[in-house]
What does this fold into?
Amino acid sequence: EAQVTQNPRYLITVTGKKLTVTCSQNMNHEYMSWYRQDPGLGLRQIYYSMNVEVTDKGDVPEGYKVSRKEKRNFPLILESPSPNQTSLYFCASSQGLANEQFFGPGTRLTVL
Amino acid sequence: QKEVEQNSGPLSVPEGAIASLNCTYSDRGSQSFFWYRQYSGKSPELIMFIYSNGDKEDGRFTAQLNKASQYVSLLIRDSQPSDSATYLCAVDGSSNDYKLSFGAGTTVTVRA
It folds into this structure.
């Protein structure tokens, strides 16, 4: 089944404790990205990747890191999480920017 | 930073009526426009995309694009209770900008 998977689905952590949210797709897509969704603000792009080893900042990259060492995986790293990073996070992949984005199930993160 | 604005909701329509959703964008170089539907607690899913000026119809959905006026709209004809969801407008960037920007979304409720 073609899909984007994310783990964990739910995470409660404390300020400053490094965490990684994994994202994997099995559709051989070139383009992958991370979004956060907050009430009233819609989806905001954090980082995107056009291909392996090619990443760039989206609109809200502060406090996040990403890497794209393999085509299928695009982990999101929070080196020192803060309460303002409490949000719902979505990973998505597509064949290209002009194509349909396939979204993962979402990761609900709470930073205390 | 690109801006994508959607008409504020929520939008409540009776079953069988037409729901009209509007979206304006700021980047004149944008080429690809998408409408995603997001049910409560779920991931966004693509319902329409449009690249050229004019109308594009798919079943009960019609997307309309006017690049000169920088707006894109979505009409839902014969609205059904199953259409109750949040609708997100997404716009790509200019040729050297590979970001994808989303509006805040418009929540539609179809009254039976």
About this structure: Chain A touches chain B through 23 residues (CB under 8 Å).
